[in-house]
Amino acid sequence: MTRPVDDVGLGAAQDPLVVALDVGSTASRGGVYDATGRPVTGLQHKVPHAFTTAPDGTSEIDPDAVVAEIEEILDALTRDPALGTRIAGVAMDTFAASLLAVDADGRPLTGCLTYADSRCAGEVAALRAELDEHAVQQRTGTRIHTSYHAPRLRWLAGADPRTFAAAAGWWSLGEYVLHRLTGVDAAGTATAAWTGLLDRRTGELDAELLAAAGVRPEQFSPGTTSTTRCTRPTACGGRRSRTPCGSRRSPTASRATSAPARPIPASWRPPRRPAARCGCCWTAPPTRCRSGCGTTASARTGPSWAERSTTWAARSAGRRAPSTSAATAPRCCPRRRRRARRSCCRT
Fold first, then answer.
1. Cis omega (within 30 of 0) for bond into 286
2. Taking phi first (over 0 means left), then psi (-120 to 50 degrees means alpha), and beta for anything else, what does residue 343 get?
3. Which SS3 state, helix, strand or coil, does residue 76 take?
4. Which of 30, 59, 76, 141 has the greatest CB tally within 10 Å of its CB?
5. Coil, strand, or helix at residue 46?
6. Which domain holds residue 347?
7. In which element (H, E) is residue 53 found?
8. Is the pLDDT of residue 342 over 70?
9. What is the mean pLDDT of the chain?
10. 249 in a domain, yes or no?
């Protein structure tokens, strides 16, 4: 069981701060984190929601409701005036394999289909009969499945042909939220891969699957690179930040702050971990050794990390590892001086 990360007060948090947003299956949530990855005390917010389901396999969520949830979270997280301009970026993720149709203005024409929507099961069987599924999997990394776009799009074409014909774009939920909040139309590599349409070897959408689904490449958001900049001045006010607006990395232009991102101070260093460790169980001071040998970990009693690295490098190269001298051998358990982790310490 992993140890939970300790919160840190706003006054002690190390800049730059980042807002992290997550749209999950049961709720949208967000929090502020400092440069060391610690959550800032009191700056977390959660808005529950649920998918709309039906016996026919329907599983949808209202995309505009999710946008409202994200706006509520951002307002709650940035209400404290003590934050000032300390927030330098915003990162967001959503549940995978979502799909909605949008018109030319980016307005939704359908609800957002979730990964659990299985109404296209018939189209899955048809596509498996038409295409070489093994070849598709080799190109895209995904099998033909109800969670991916090709059978969903074909099902939508038959179930609602008027909406299918009117669709100017096919977006994920994250793309829609990003468009609503920043005006940027873009998709990262992970989002494109979860469509099941991305050729992993070329980075382009798979032509055979697009043809089978009856859609065009221009109906999908363009991929982004770290040099892509937002062309809409209303999204970020024309600012130039360390991470450009609209990049594959998290966009710094957001509702969370109206000032340019503050650069990471040159003097900042990650917090140092305790160097002293018990040579038997690597317990940090002032904790006593867990194996019961009675030694307090007040000084380094085992080999240094440099010595360990030399040993590991020698082993990987097929050579015999250099012996550990008596001066550097663990003194915590005199009866067991081997370099391997001791069974007496596995508590």
1. yes
2. alpha
3. helix
4. 30
5. strand
6. 276-347
7. strand 52-53
8. no
9. 76
10. no
